[in-house]
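Support case: zinc ion complex. Customer-provided input:
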Amino acid sequence: MLRRARSIGLALAVLLGFSLAPRQATARRAIVVLDAGHGGSNLGAAGRAPAALEKRLTLAITKEVARLLEDRADVDVVLTRRDDRFITLRERVRLANKAGGDLFLSIHLNASPDHLQQGFETWIVSPEALDVDARAMRWGDGPTRPGVSEELAAMLDDVERGAALPRSAALAARMQARLGELRGVTRGRGVMQGSQDVLLGLGMPGALVEVGFIDHATEGEELLDPAVRSKIASALAQAIIDWLGPRTL
Ligand SMILES: [Zn+2]
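Agent response - structure generated as follows:
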């Protein structure tokens, strides 16, 4: 009987340990993966001025967000690219998973066919895209789980992705809130759900933020101003800090 009680106690301890794991995780440095959209031969969207290329502005903003976060003692930053190079979407996901990121943020600028749209929006993976996501996991881009059977790994992937979805939504909401404070809530286009390839297969919460329209007459001009971009970078960094919450090291 005693032996049985002990084994139940052990099982409970294992369960408790499992459920407490996320809280213990806050006692270490958070790993933030930042992804500057496009790069190299992939120019992204273009504005009116020759210098108004999405790949150039995403890199400038991303590096500034990284610098702001690296100043903190409780955050480590991983960048998917530091210069003007082409990198596939799958490589970005693979890099984030390999780094064991706590969150993934892909930074972009928008454009529209009529060049009249403006504002900012944040995308997360839709529940419908999770089927595709499961396929991405099977392609071998998912988190690596050494010493775990394939079946158990697939199950853990499912649990992890299910748990990540509301946390991704919370991250997107933080992005919209901080950008709203800076750029005006009326420019907020909301949190969108889709099947962005760069978010598929991630083993962590993730979002893709479109900070503004590069091809809009006024907004595009503003986004070319380094001072405006710095403020946007601060808003994104603050949103990440909000999302991470208080951390004790
Ligand atoms: Zn883009």
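The helical segments are 2-25, 54-70, 89-99, 130-141, 150-183, 217-223, 226-244.

Case will auto-close in a few days if no follow-up is received.
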